[in-house]
């Protein structure tokens, strides 16, 4: 009986001392959220698309870096867009994520190719 009491006391002290320290350590290792501005007036059309081209426009109409990913996260296409017309003839039917960067602003859009 004395031995069980001793084990219970040690376990209780461990939980009081070690558990809060572990929880605090876990919080410091959590990744920080980054904030990114969205692109003003961004438009991607037509969506869903059944042709070979999509159009990407924004208020500033500056050069854009375009990255297209499949639903598994694999990069399918990377290009710079100087106008507003993007050739997507190499994409098979499916769902894609389009990452658009204009200056320091980044936005993502879902694209459905029929």
UniProtKB/TrEMBL annotation:
The keyword Signal applies. It holds the Pfam family Por_Secre_tail. It comes from Zunongwangia atlantica 22II14-10F7. Residues 44-113 form the Secretion system C-terminal sorting domain. This is Secretion system C-terminal sorting domain-containing protein. InterPro entries: Secre_tail. Keywords: Signal. Residues 1-23 form the signal peptide.
